[in-house]
TrEMBL record, chains A, B:
Organism: Cognatishimia coralii
Key word Flavoprotein present: no
UniProt-recorded name of the protein: Crp/Fnr family transcriptional regulator
Domain HTH crp-type residue range list: 152-226
Keywords assigned: DNA-binding, Transcription, Transcription regulation
UniProt KW Plastid keyword: no
UniProt cross-references to InterPro entries, sorted A to Z: cNMP-bd_dom, cNMP-bd_dom_sf, Env_Response_Regulators, HTH_CRP, RmlC-like_jellyroll, Tscrpt_reg_HTH_Crp-type_CS, WH-like_DNA-bd_sf, WH_DNA-bd_sf
Cited Gene3D superfamilies: Jelly Rolls, Winged helix-like DNA-binding domain superfamily/Winged helix DNA-binding domain
Length: 242, 242
DNA sequence: GAGCCGACTTGATCCAGATCAAAGTTCCCT
DNA sequence: AGGGAACTTTGATCTGGATCAAGTCGGCTC
């Protein structure tokens, strides 16, 4: 019952079938995509594409996590997106890539050659409609992140980050309330616009305050969801009095 | 020869005809939009829509400048976008708005009622294709801004901001190299994730260093474009040795 | 043209988070 | 089982930008 990443595998049972750019496609359209796709796997840590590289393929991320980031000449790095399964890589109409894409864990991509795919986008409205939806969702997420980067304190940043993981219900490993940090302290720092030392200190502080609890470096439990939410700074909306 | 913002005016001669969501539309599709549109004008400073408000209309910004922002409960405000002519307001598929939209100057919108417009997006691929392009462009811009907010120094932020104005060739008022600041110091601060005092100090500093020159508070000239570019921090790419 | 208000500048001080510097930990790898 | 290397924590100190606090400038009203 597992899906094997092989070109002859049918798209119908693909794990991201209903969330990726093909989500709105019907069977016929899916067949077109099936004829074009190829899979590629990257080990954790490997670069997938570098800023400025020629974009030979578009791709959907099928499994794993990748990061989208930009590094200034002096080494300062800012992550601008976390790519999760079903997220799309590439910009129809552009020849090159604007940001560095790096595999955070082992990553598998479902790829399409640039020209044929661009033609398909013109011909199959279900694809551009879905890509518009996805781009608009990401735009909203990027803007929320801008608020975080521009105006939140270190503690609020980390609390927001943990809350995001919890909300996405990332890998409830064993018991329902055990979550995994998908990134190292340094990667979290690059995501939040902080230094790794500050990440470490703030995590310790949240632990001291009884908000979270660490099983090991990468696994945590929430001891006080309400306190976490309060610490995130973006109250106002879902006060969620459970 | 001026375009009057009147519902009976033809879209064909609209100032944003070739850049807005209708850019790819042919004459017939344009006629559909013509039948649906209505214009609305807001004075400078007026709120256009507030976060959480019901989205009754989608709109294209036809003239003027608007801001997209979020304010935390304690008053900290972060601007997350500047809307210029041809930019779109609203998210098909969503009932409410995620950010506050405010008129910075006098603003005129070309509006479409939500339901009929959503139906049109489903039926006219040229619209979703164009909206996808526009959303992806904005996404790239938002991500570049994330790098600025997360990793740049105050000086780099302002230099980047001025460079952006210069690059867009905003209102070369009289002589070719005179530019206008579209925002107050406080608005710039909210855009860059700084305080208005820091904006003021950094502008003074760039002036002292002979990079820019002020005609008055809102108008400036670039005295050393190369120095401005160097100060922006994102070299690497277009070193543009003119 | 006096008086006022909003936008801006400048100065003094403070502090959150950066930076510099050691120690721990954990997990490979041989 | 031992020796690193990578990751993480913790401590001491520094600093860029925030905050607090006067002023200044320019346009507008009466």
């Amino acid at each position: 019952m597992t899906f094997v990443f092989n070109e002859r595998e049918k798209c119908g049972s693909c794990p991201i079938r209903h969330r990726a750019i093909c989500a709105r496609c019907d069977e016929d359209e899916l067949t077109l995509l099936e004829g074009m796709k190829s899979y590629q796997t990257f080990e954790a840590g490997q670069p997938i594409i570098w800023r400025g590289d020629d974009l030979t393929h578009f791709a959907s991320l099928v499994s794993g996590i990748a990061s989208l980031s930009r590094t200034l000449e002096d080494g300062r790095t800012q992550m601008v997106g976390l790519l999760l399964p079903s997220d799309f890589i590439g910009r129809p109409g552009r020849e090159t890539v604007d940001f560095d894409v790096t595999a955070v864990t082992e990553v598998t991509l479902c790829r399409f050659q640039r020209r044929p795919f661009e033609d398909l986008v013109e011909r199959v409205p279900h694809i551009s409609q879905r890509m518009m939806e996805m781009a608009l969702d990401e735009l909203t997420a990027a803007r929320e992140w801008m608020v975080l980067l521009g105006r939140k304190t270190a503690r609020e940043k980390i609390a927001t980050f943990l809350e995001m993981i919890v909300r996405r219900e990332t890998v409830p490993t064993q018991s329902i309330q055990e979550y995994q940090l998908p990134l190292t302290r340094e990667e979290i720092a690059n995501f939040l616009g902080l230094t790794l030392e500050t990440i470490s200190r703030q995590l310790t502080s949240l632990k001291k305050d009884g908000v979270v609890e660490f099983i090991d470096r990468r696994h945590f439990r929430i001891k006080d969801l309400n306190a976490l939410h309060l610490a995130s700074g973006d109250d106002a909306d879902g006060g969620v009095i459970v």
